[in-house]
Design goal:
With 326 residues, the protein is an alpha/beta fold. It has a domain of 154 residues: TIM Barrel, CATH 3.20.20. Strands 1, 2, 3, 4, 7, 8, 9, 10, 11 and 12 form a 10-stranded mixed sheet that branches. It has a two-stranded antiparallel ribbon with strand order 5-6. The protein is globular.
Length: 326
């Protein structure tokens, strides 16, 4: 039996220049469409330059097979609105989308939006959001729903979404509340690449970046040239962690040095506010073997941080291809 291929969603490294944002996203989206990626990850938040639903439409109109992974935070919209967007994109392009269900944003942004829910209650709301969205998209009849945060009375979405166009839901949170909601709703649970690379793999999805070359030595040298350490960048991350109650951000931040480990695990891009995840650095063969090992342990879905550069993206593709799972 042929092993299932990995579904990979590239995400561009952190971009602080609004003049380059759309161009970089479109460059990565086009590359992903031509090279067998599932789609592209689109972030949500007060500091995101283009609303992800608008960006998803722009990308789908310019590609032939891309299924974007769209971040959805209940603080920004109602489940009916999100379901309507999913239905609209399906009708316009005949393609499904994936939804990255999140609760996190800066504490100051939550305050500005008037959202004072606790961390745990935001996840209760997220679970209700997913449940109501699924009912609206799948039900041939009007939906009734009674939750703590959402109610629906004979609410119907037209037309009913075809089964093959139903979205898949991912949850990336690392807290106990996030894990509980992922289990209760059947969402694809995501985790960060673990430092030892071998233990702690308990989710079908993983978030990390790849920096690869033909040899291990070349990969490590090129990675260190690309991601430089600077105290100002570390201070930016410290400020964002202080302004957040995200469990995964704190877990990555606390007690980490940023040294490139012998096994290829590297947190410096995250610690210097240049990426939102750890990186895996090594030769094509090394990374390919590790991906194959991850897949044997149940990995199906990857959020892949990528540098928006054609040559660098080709290097990542070679590492993915070496796994035989992409």
């Amino acid at each position: 039996m042929t092993a299932p291929r990995l579904r990979v969603f590239p995400a561009i490294s952190r971009n602080r220049d609004p003049r380059k944002y759309v161009g970089e996203l479109m460059r990565v989206a086009g590359f992903a469409d031509r090279n067998g990626f599932e789609g592209i990850l689109l972030f949500e938040g007060n500091d995101v330059f283009v609303e992800p639903w608008a960006m998803a439409q722009h990308i789908m109109a310019a590609t032939t097979r891309s299924s974007p992974l769209i971040a959805v935070n209940p603080v920004y919209m109602h489940p009916f609105t999100a379901a309507k967007f999913v239905s609209s994109l399906a009708q316009l392009h005949g393609r499904k989308v994936y939804l990255n269900m999140i609760t996190g944003t800066a504490a100051s942004d939550l305050h500005g939006l008037g959202d004072d829910q606790s961390h745990g209650d935001r996840y209760v709301r997220l679970g209700e959001f997913v449940e109501l969205m699924r009912l609206l998209l799948a039900s041939p009849r009007p939906v009734n729903f009674e939750g703590r945060f959402y109610r629906a009375n004979n609410l119907q979405l037209r037309p009913r979404l075809a089964a093959e166009l139903m979205p898949e839901f991912l949850i990336a949170g690392q807290s106990d509340a996030a894990q509980r909601v992922a289990k209760e709703t059947g969402c694809i649970k995501m985790q960060m690449l673990p430092p030892d690379l071998d233990r702690g793999l308990d989710a079908p999805g993983m978030n990390f970046g790849i920096f690869a070359r033909e040899s291990r030595e070349d990969a490590r040298a090129a990675a260190k040239a690309r991601f430089r350490d600077h105290p100002d960048d570390r201070e930016l991350l410290a400020l964002t962690v202080e302004n957040s109650d995200s469990v995964w951000k704190r877990k990555l931040y606390e007690g980490q040095s940023g040294e490139l480990a012998d096994n290829g695990y590297w947190l410096l891009p995250y610690l210097t506010f240049q990426a939102d995840c750890p990186y895996l650095v090594g030769s094509y063969a090394e990374i390919g073997a590790k991906l194959k090992d991850f897949a044997a342990k149940g990995l199906t879905t990857v959020m892949l941080d990528m540098v928006s550069d054609e040559a660098e993206m080709q290097h990542a593709c070679k590492a993915l291809a070496a796994s035989g799972m992409f």
